[in-house]
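Q: Given only this backbone (348 positions), what sequence would you predict?
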């Protein structure tokens, strides 16, 4: 009941914009999940007990890492990549900034636009469903209000013909569509297909001068292609792949749909961002786990308004030195206070 009320409050975005305090995780939530003694080692609690993240034991394998600039989000993500690999889990990083500390963990590094990906082979997707999803996100990313259906039709035509020619013809003379066509034609090509990429460790980045829209669109298509591919393999209890997604707030609408899925497809997206308020708050409620890194007062105040922190929890992320974090697992209203113990190879 309480959950429903909170949800309905949260759907009224205007309340959030007005800065009201709406706790995302209700203190009246269900029983806490059991402590884990397997999975990815995160660190220790205040009594020195080991804390583990076990995505397989959570309702879904996805998570969010929040922290201000320099708080250690990417370092923690690299630690999780190293932990995951040790248990045979494949890893992807989608990093628009091209951070060297990530790149050096990978032998396969793709620069999207130089390395072309086949966007017209969408394994696991029904043609119209894939075209519809692309239409939906293109509309959001490029701010083309009302263009969703037109784009869906054009993309469906391209998928049927296995060529971008129909798009080129229709875009001719329409500046918005031409801009979109330019971006799609910079990304699409025959160098790589999702069927091979999803079976490897891959680091994806974009050229420095890429526009915000191109970065967001490229990332979104990759996520959709992977989604279809993993879904087509069928439900899985075991974690087989981890995707680290930098600048994830841009993809809040997609993450919401992904985190909502009731079945597990054997992969987890770890969404990283500095901006808790840029996410739809339901993303935190639906994520398998959320890790909040320590930071300055204004950031902690933001976090506090989204997660109903006790004074003790707030102090842990406010006054502690680097490496302090709050670790939420879905279904557990109270976070664990963690002191992260990260692998040396994860440090920049
Ligand atoms: N737990 C830690 N212990 C010691 N050093 C750390 C820890 N976490 C991060 N660092 C160091 O802090 C610096 C910043 O970390 P990192 O790049 O991961 O931050 P970030 O949150 O990703 O920042 P940005 O938002 O700018 O990308 C790095 O030099 C990293 O090695
Ligand atoms: Mg970073």
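A: Predicted residues:
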């Amino acid at each position: 009941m309480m959950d429903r009320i909170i949800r309905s409050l949260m759907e009224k975005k205007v309340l959030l914009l007005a800065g009201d305090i709406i706790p995302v995780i209700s203190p009246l939530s269900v029983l806490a999940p059991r402590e884990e003694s397997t999975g990815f080692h995160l660190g220790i609690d205040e009594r020195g007990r080991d804390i583990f993240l076990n995505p397989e034991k959570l309702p879904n394998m996805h998570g969010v890492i929040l922290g201000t600039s320099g708080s250690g989000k990417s370092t923690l993500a690299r630690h999780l990549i190293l932990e995951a690999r040790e248990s045979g889990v494949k890893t992807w990083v989608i990093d628009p900034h091209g951070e060297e500390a990530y790149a050096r963990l990978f032998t396969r590094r793709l620069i999207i636009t130089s390395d072309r990906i086949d966007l017209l082979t969408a394994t696991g997707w029904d043609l119209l469903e894939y075209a519809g999803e692309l239409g939906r996100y293109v509309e959001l990313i490029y701010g083309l209000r009302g263009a969703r259906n037109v784009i869906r039709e054009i993309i469906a035509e391209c998928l049927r013909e296995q060529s971008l020619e129909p798009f080129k013809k229709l875009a001719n003379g329409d500046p918005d569509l031409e801009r979109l066509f330019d971006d799609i034609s910079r990304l699409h090509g025959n160098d790589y297909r999702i069927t091979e990429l999803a079976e490897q460790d891959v680091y994806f980045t974009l050229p420095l001068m890429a526009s915000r829209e191109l970065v967001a669109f490229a990332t979104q298509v990759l996520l959709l292609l992977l989604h279809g591919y993993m879904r087509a393999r069928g439900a899985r209890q075991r974690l087989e792949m981890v995707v680290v997604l930098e600048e994830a707030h841009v993809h809040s609408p997609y993450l919401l749909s992904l985190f909502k899925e009731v079945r597990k497809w054997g992969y987890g997206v770890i969404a990283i961002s500095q901006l808790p308020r840029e996410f739809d708050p339901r993303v935190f409620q639906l994520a398998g786990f959320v890790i909040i890194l320590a930071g300055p007062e204004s950031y902690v105040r933001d976090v506090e308004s989204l997660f109903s922190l006790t004074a003790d929890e707030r102090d842990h992320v406010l006054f502690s030195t680097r490496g302090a974090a709050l670790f939420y697992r879905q279904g557990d209203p109270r976070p664990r206070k963690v002191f992260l113990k990260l692998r040396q190879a994860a440090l920049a």
